[in-house]
Amino acid sequence: MSLDRGKWATGGPETVAPGVHRIPLPLPNDGLRAINVYALEEPGGLVLIDAGWSIPESLEVLAESLAGLGHGLGEITDVYVTHIHRDHYTQAAELRRRFGTRVHLGAGERPGLELLTTLRTDVPVTSLDVLRRGGAADLAERMAEGYGEFDPAGWEPPDRWLDAGLVALRHPLRVVPTPGHTRGHVVYLDERRGLLFSGDHVLPHITPSIGFELGEPGLPLGDYLDSLALMTAFPDSRLLPAHGPVAESTHTRVDELLAHHDKRLAETEDALGAGARDGHAVAGRLGWTRRSVAFGDLNDFNRMLAVNETVAHLDVLVARGRAVVSEMDGVARYSPAA
């Protein structure tokens, strides 16, 4: 049985299938509470799905959790990462330095990782560009000042770039590219046992941020909605997410997420009809989180995510012919389609 909303982040290891263990690891801030990594017992050692954020507390909890299952960190032979965000990737690089663990990452993340190591900055440059395009230049400047010195240690390239296909484990994993949250996000599907290691693509209680990465933004929400619909092309499976408890049906949650974004697109369109014209102004007319918190009550980081998500919804409205856009002084101005 899945753990409830409050206990999943602190409840310790949970065996979700024979030889498959969910291990929640701490994060250095409480926004997402924790990240789930999954330890798969293989004949030659342990395989992890995602690795966590490289902080001492996380490695300590991982070691303690594995010890409680009768294993050690040195038994981890491979980490299959769902996407490039630091809470999923950076501890994989630390495990490789310490134990020779092999690291695998979706090929679609390669441009973003190469750009990150070229720019050598933790500042979300592309997201700040979207803020400026969305009419939130002041917020972009505040956010740019809030990042510390870049640490390249967690951003080394993987041992292997993964394309769509099968990973040859005792229970093979199908690599399914699911762009949207990031361009190179992948999920890992255990078709034999009906398990989906969904990373941040399908989450049980929240909707993932869209396009929070380096590189050309493109149409990330359009990609995400297509990737969500793709999940229904496979038989239904148990949902093993990166944040939140295990859920029994991926399809049920996908339907909820698609309905949420349909509703959000309608709300965004209504805000345009009420006179808001740029992403920042539209975001200010919408409620945020499950509790419908006012935009003005969010902190700057979450305001950034909110404006970026609003611009993503506005761009999908344009792509669907429900809005039009023009650019003036680097700011996108939207209006309802005639």
Topology (SSEs and partners):
Elements: E1 14-17, E2 20-26, E3 34-42, E4 45-49, H1 56-68, E5 76-80, H2 86-99, E6 102-106, H3 110-119, H4 125-133, H5 137-144, E7 160-162, E8 165-167, E9 173-177, E10 186-190, E11 195-199, H6 220-231, E12 238-241, H7 250-273, H8 279-284, E13 287-288, E14 293-294, H9 300-319, E15 323-328, E16 331-336
Parallel strand pairs: 4-5, 5-6, 6-7, 11-12
Antiparallel strand pairs: 1-2, 2-3, 3-4, 8-9, 9-10, 10-11, 13-14, 15-16
Helix pairs in contact: 4-5, 4-9, 5-9, 6-7, 7-9
Would you kindly provide a written description of the structure presented here, covering whatever features stand out?
The protein has 338 residues and is α/β, with parallel strands linked by helices. It contains nine helices and 16 strands. Helix 4 crosses helix 9 (300-319) and helix 5 packs across helix 9. The radius of gyration is 20 Å and the shape is globular.
Provide tags for this entry.
alpha/beta, seven-stranded mixed β-sheet, 34% helix, 338 residues, five-stranded mixed β-sheet, 16 strands
Could you write a compact summary of the structure shown?
This protein has 338 residues and is of the alpha/beta class. It has nine helices and 16 strands.
* Radius of gyration (Å): 20 Å
Gross morphology is: globular
Let me know the number of strands: 16
Task: Please identify the structural class as seen in this structure.
Answer: alpha/beta
Which residues sit in consecutive blocks of at least 5 with pLDDT less than 50?
none
Mean pLDDT reading: 93
Biggest beta sheet summary: 7 strands, mixed
Q: Biggest sheet: strands side by side, in what order? A: 1-2-3-4-5-6-7
Helix fraction by DSSP (H/I, runs of at least 4): 25-40%
Strand content: 15-25%
Order of helices and strands: EEEEHEHEHHHEEEEEHEHHEEHEE
Number of helices: 9
Distance between the termini: 51 Å
